[in-house]
Amino acid sequence: MPQGAWWFGGWIINVQAESETVVGCTALSCHFGKVVAVDGISFEVRAGERFALLGPNGAGKSTTLQMLITMLRPTAGQAQVLGFDVTREAAAVRAAIGVVFQEPALDDRLSARENLEMHAALYRLPRRGRKMQIAEALEWASLSDAAKRPVSTFSGGMKRRLELSRALMHGPKVLFMDEPTQGLDPQGRQHLWERIESLKSAGLSTFMTTHYLQEAETCDRVGIIDHGKMIALGTPEELKRETLGDSGGTLEEVFLKLTGRALRDEEATPRARMLSFARKGGEHTR
What is the pTM of this model? Predict the structure, then answer.
């Protein structure tokens, strides 16, 4: 794929050469006191690639993503996104990426249009043409008719589509998604996944965590993390051959063979509880 730019619903997104590394980690670790959440993992994501990070509850996949998007500071090791160090050049990383969080990150007191207007202002999108960009984002998300409705009235699928279109508005070069289809019904998941598929066909680099292994089957490469360590890395076909001895199996079979069948119940961490409290407005929750 040559260097250049492509149009997507009115947005320009630069596309790097396929051989270029857009996300790179070397011995990346994250500790919370004595708890080792991520333990010296190394991997890369190439330009135009769709990469899925899988793992049981508490395996370290969301912590890895949070380090890459600069929400958590690595304890050790290095990570770069688009050539920017996630610790020393965090602002440059944030300006160049789009993020869809696991939990909704919309202001549900505002309308869909107002949420997009706020995003456009935060990313300092040019005022000229901003109205058209917002209209195109709403149309792409199939939300034009609901543009003036408060987000609090939206279904989970509508919120996810709005978050995805918002994450693309400023023309990111890499899109990070943490469990993007979690909690959606089959129709909502299918609708959202069709939009994610269109990003792949257009050449955008994507990094996602997911529990839906059928979705990971369509990714270019998959990493499986468990107890903070990367225990498998490759294309879905490579992982099936290496783990099952037959590329005709499924990623679910690979996953269960590598991580076991024991349940991984996970309590919310103090940090997660604090963030949830803040998102709800603390003691001032309406």
Answer: 0.84
